Amino acid sequence: MDARPRPDDSAAPAPADGSAAARFIRPADRPLAVMLRAGFWLTVGFGGIALPFAVLLTGSARPPPVGLLWDFAMGCGFAALAIAAMQFALTGRIKALTGPFGADIVYVFHRYLSWGVLGLMLLHFAVLYIWYQPALGELNPLTARWELTMGRVALVCFGLLIVTSELRKWLRLDYHWWRILHLALAVTGFVAAISHVLGVGNYSSMENALALWLGVTLVWLGFLIWSRLLRPVVQTRNPWRITANEVERGGVRTLTLRPEGRALQDWKPGQFAWLSVGHSPWAMRENPFTISTAPDHGPEISFSIKPLGDDSARLAKTTPGSLAYVDGPFGTFSVDRELDAAGFVMIAGGVGITPVMSNLHALRSRRDPRPVILIYANPELNDASFREELDSIARDIDLTVIHVPEEPPEDWQGESGRVDKALLTRNLPGVTRDWPHMLCGPPPMIAAASAALRDLGVPARRISFEIFELV
Ligand SMILES: Cc1cc2nc3c(=O)[nH]c(=O)nc-3n(C[C@H](O)[C@H](O)[C@H](O)COP(=O)(O)OP(=O)(O)OC[C@H]3O[C@@H](n4cnc5c(N)ncnc54)[C@H](O)[C@@H]3O)c2cc1C
């Protein structure tokens, strides 16, 4: 548990001027480039929803008009299907797509869009039920028209998707089984919905509309094949080997991995990856962990894992020599996204220190001259993982570490208790208000600390957080 000479940050040459940050920021991470990419993806997204309407409105041989409410119901159905297809791209871990926003934001977006899909489907059904009931035919699946039954199957699947996701913990659904169920319901729901649209044939029998829905299905199939078949193949060809498993304070274990194929490409400090040990990449048995080292250290990477449940406990016990699979990097919790920052405030709670460590290693190896204030909360001082390593980093860069043990030792002179407004006021001088504030820790701590920072006048755009839960 001492300051091991793990990644040798101090080996890097010190830059001659204060431009340390700029030298390491990739052009793709510069603010304008990020905004342009975000704008591009939003345009693609909204364009994808608008596409069915454009095709239907401009198409020839449109069916005779039935009524405004009928067209509205059809529109709701088409929009629901377009968004449902898009959902597979949002959860497909496509780096180009998640990059500008951050994987957590994309998952939150996916979650709320799901409500949108269900709402549009219910609206589609409700309008037809109220005003065009004969069109719905029989309810009994044994005697009903198959394409109408497909529509109902889709509605039930999307409803179950939302219920099982929102109430997963309450239903005590194991995360692994929930993921399998989620995929099965999503695939069945989408196939049922597209069969319904094609089978019913309203508008979709038009030549260009048929091409549209077949195109949507192909794109959807492409995402599915990539994420469930091709990516595991790529991972199988690029395995990793665990080379060390070290004990840290606070019950955390650090696994070090060496690439046996292609190393991680283009990763930034503070990013995370999905890690799988002891299962094939097809098993959907992988968990997200921050890479606690920095890219500046070469191809080896480390994950620091706190055993909190079945998978993390199993991973923490991994023996050196085991084979692992890594899918990443993802995430935006990085000093590399903060080129213009004059300094950094970092607030970590417990194992939330991992992305902070990665960022600090990067700043140290680059001899970045910008000041960093780290507020680090733990139940007890002895639980503070990487305590000695932080002391060592503080000798090389302008880092101030403020430990906040909830239960301090008797002779403790420093801060203690909770990270609240009073503590932040005492430790953050006014000059830090416009610095990026990077928070990672238990959700209640993040909520309380960010509310206190807002009270102190820190602009919302200067507060970012990493949440260790994606759904
Ligand atoms: C971006 C990110 C970075 C993380 N970095 C670290 C880190 O550096 N160190 C660390 O110790 N922990 C980290 N975590 C948390 C870690 O992923 C969970 O503690 C671990 O997956 C829990 O799995 P479990 O089976 O041990 O526990 P369980 O009791 O099964 O799960 C506890 C909760 O963790 C979440 N979870 C479980 N499995 C997954 C999964 N495969 N994908 C997403 N969420 C899941 C679920 O919300 C679940 O309810 C990170 C999480 C995220 C999202």
TrEMBL record:
Q: Which Pfam families does its entry note?
A: Ferric_reduct, NAD_binding_1
According to its UniProt entry, this protein's organism is Szabonella alba
**Transmembrane feature ranges:** 34-57, 69-91, 112-132, 144-165, 177-198, 210-230
Q: Please list the cofactors this protein needs.
A: FAD
In this chain the FAD-binding FR-type domain maps to 235-336
Entry's localization field: Membrane
Keyword tags: 2Fe-2S, FAD, Flavoprotein, Iron, Iron-sulfur, Membrane, Metal-binding, Oxidoreductase, Transmembrane, Transmembrane helix
Q: Which GO terms describe its molecular function?
A: 2 iron, 2 sulfur cluster binding; flavin adenine dinucleotide binding; metal ion binding; oxidoreductase activity
- Tell me the membrane topology, using the record's own terms: Multi-pass membrane protein
- The molecule here is called Ferric reductase-like transmembrane domain-containing protein
Cellular-component GO terms for this entry: membrane
The source's superkingdom equals Bacteria
SUPFAM superfamilies linked: Ferredoxin reductase-like, C-terminal NADP-linked domain, Riboflavin synthase domain-like
